[in-house]
Amino acid sequence: MLVKTYASAVEGVDAQTITVEVNAGGSPGKKGFYFLVGLPDNAIKESFQRIETAIGNVGKRMKRVKTVVNLAPANIRKEGSAFDLPIAMACLGATDQVQHEEMDKYIMMGELSLDGSLRPIRGALPIAIQARKDNFKGLILPKENAREAAIVNDLDVYGVESLRDAIDFFNGKRSLEPTFVETREEFYHDQNNYTIDFSDVKGQENIKR
Q1: Which domains are present in the chain?
Q2: Orientation of helix 163-170 relative to helix 84-94, angle to 10°
Q3: Please, which of 29, 42, 93, 129 could form a disulfide with 100 given CB 3.0 to 4.6 Å?
Q4: What is the mean pLDDT of residues 168-190?
């Protein structure tokens, strides 16, 4: 079965939506059963051990059928371990362990720990901005990144703590509340929270004015 999820490649302050395609089925060959293509860096190439262990520790399993993972478009370099979550969810969907019908409406990002919990990622804000531009319904990412991403209006941002949370959400066993941020208050707080004051600077009166 072929299942698609969506992720995001971050470069600087920009992000680009990445399609994660997983096709699972058929007998594994002599070279193994898991194949990853689409210009991944070493962190993504090493993700299989993290993903398989995390899946096992939340009560699912990586089935031993031929599994091809494609990160598209292939000409864009994909970097970092934040692709763990969308790859894991696509693998589970392609082997009928998670309902996948709604997955293509969300961007998913997150690094998996071996116990299935999620570690924070970088670039949550540009990822959210691009997700809204591309008309995705929502963004699922580690809970620690939810407030940063929720600054973007008109996009449901769901902070999750583990792979299990994401599985239960798509299987209809768990409801998630979107993270809400009062944008004006957030920026007002940041504008008035300085660790350095010009009154601490000696001299340079012309500049301080």
Answers
A1: 2-181 (3.30.230.10)
A2: 40
A3: 93
A4: 84
Record the pTM: 0.87
Amino acid identity, residue 177?
E
DSSP lists the bridge partners of residue 68 as 23, 35
Amino acid (one-letter) located at 140: I
Q: What is the pLDDT at residue 31?
A: 76
- At residue 30, the pLDDT reads 72
Distances (CA, A) of 126 to 10, 14, 37, 139: 7, 6, 25, 12
Euclidean distance between CA atoms 94 and 46, whole angstroms: 21
| Tokens (6 digits) for 78 | 């994909």
Q: Name the nearest CA neighbour of 87 among 18, 150, 145, 29.
A: 18
Spatial contact of 67 and 35, defined as CB atoms under 8 Å apart? yes
